Amino acid sequence: MTPQEKLKIRMQKALNRQSKADKKAAQAKVTQQENKRAEREGELRAMARKIRMKERERREKERDEWERQYGRQSHSPSPSKYGRDHSSSRRRSRSRSRSPYYRY
């Protein structure tokens, strides 16, 4: 084997080692990015859960205060409140939106 052929083989092996190392580093980087993304998603989920819990507590507190102020009443809607008047107002609002004079 000539010295030039030996050098060529040595260079090819070095190139293969470097290529392998580059692939390994790229895979490690992708894995690290995926882990960071998963961690961020977990943090966001925890924050959203905390916000929902605080919002629920706030609504419950407001409901309790309202009930203390106005007394406990039936939780079922009264027919006069959601009966004919509600549906007719809904109908009016729909017909108003179909009016030719109503434009966005």
UniProtKB/TrEMBL annotation:
It comes from Hucho hucho (huchen). This is CLK4-associating serine/arginine rich protein. It comes from the Eukaryota. Residues 14-104 are annotated as: Disordered. Residues 34-46, 54-70 have a biased composition (Basic and acidic residues). Signal peptide: none annotated. InterPro entries: SWAP. Coiled coil: none annotated.
